[in-house]
Specification:
The protein is an all-alpha fold and 330 residues long. It contains 13 helices and no strands. It is globular.
């Protein structure tokens, strides 16, 4: 008796669209494309020129690196408000080591190959401090990192007296320019994606954020995970400081103002739950690009400070509201 073989049903365009939209990052990607299109029309094409799009990617790379680290904290239901303080401290420290001006703290300039590791290690040390206070003493992450944020700015002012530091080595300029900065950003995001999705540490991060009590009962050292994510966040903040210093070829205490809110907004817009345990790094990258597009458009259209604060505040509130609605709909 001949077997009856069913023919596979043809895949329709509607089925393909349904599968695409079912992906957790599809809506974010569509929102990014729509935002670029709408702003292009409003600005009469000024925001969608090749040079401006390249500038958006460059700007997004610096804030995106910080957002990658912020995502680790938020995945464990914590926040890191110290991003700008740690980044500025690393920026001023590195600048004061490399400059040929009187602000040099060593008495002689060192190469970027010596300054950059110092910047990253010192930044990570601040993360260790925050993570220890949060994990070991059970202090609220908002309070701890707010304090570290202020301390970081204080140290930055102490290093250079609040003066901008210039006259940096020309070889340092490559890190904050195209294509190096985007390559660094996407590489960091790719490594973070691999860690979260394909390692035991990543599984522990999600478990800690999803339910720390259950994670503890299942044998996960919740305190070590919490401490580790703050070190990662601070390390990324330090790297953002390196990129920003390289881009402007100067150290300034004002350079990273607002990056802590931009990083949080990027993470939440990217679909990472503020309550922890849900989200992925692809969404964070898309969220960082969305924030970059918004920031760039407000600059291109010469929007005043009042309008910029209103727009960015509305975006953050909207992202938080969307996250809460997603949780209620689960």
């Amino acid at each position: 008796m001949a077997e009856v073989v069913e023919r596979p049903k043809p895949v329709t365009a509607r089925e393909v669209a349904r599968r695409v939209l079912a992906h957790e990052n599809a809506v974010i990607g569509i929102a990014l494309a729509a935002l670029i299109g709408v702003l292009g029309v409003i600005s009469r094409g000024s925001t969608v020129t090749a040079s401006n799009m390249a500038n958006i990617v460059l700007q997004s790379s610096i804030r995106g690196v910080a957002a990658v680290g912020q995502a680790f904290c938020i995945l464990t239901a914590n926040f890191d408000l110290s991003v700008s303080g740690v980044g500025v401290m690393a920026m001023m420290l590195g600048s004061a080591m490399m400059t040929t001006e009187w602000t040099n703290i060593l008495g002689y300039p060192v190469s970027p190959f010596m300054a950059i590791p110092v910047m990253l290690v010192v930044a990570a040390a601040w993360g260790l401090l925050s993570g220890t206070l949060v994990s070991r003493l059970a202090l609220p992450s908002l309070i701890v990192t707010f304090g570290v944020w202020q301390i970081g700015y204080g140290v930055a002012f102490y290093i250079t007296g609040g003066q901008a530091v210039m006259e940096l080595p020309r070889s340092f300029a490559i890190y904050g320019s195209l294509p190096a900065a985007p390559i660094i950003f996407f590489s960091v995001a790719a490594v973070a994606y691999f860690v979260l999705m394909h390692t035991s540490f990543g599984r522990r991060v999600y478990a800690t954020g999803g339910n720390p009590v259950s994670a503890y009962l299942s044998g996960i050292n919740v305190k070590n995970v919490q401490r580790s994510v703050f070190i990662i966040s601070a390390l990324c903040a330090g790297l953002a400081g390196v990129l920003m210093t390289s881009r402007g070829m100067a150290g300034s205490t004002e350079a990273l103002r607002g990056i802590e809110l931009d990083s949080i907004a990027s993470v939440v817009i990217g679909g990472v739950s503020l309550f922890g345990g849900r989200g992925n790094m692809i969404g964070v990258v898309l969220g960082a690009l969305i924030i970059g597009v918004i920031n760039n458009a407000m600059g291109v259209m010469h929007m005043g400070h009042a309008g910029r604060y209103i727009v960015k505040g509305a975006v953050i509130v909207g992202a938080v509201a969307a996250d809460i609605l997603r949780r209620r709909g689960r």
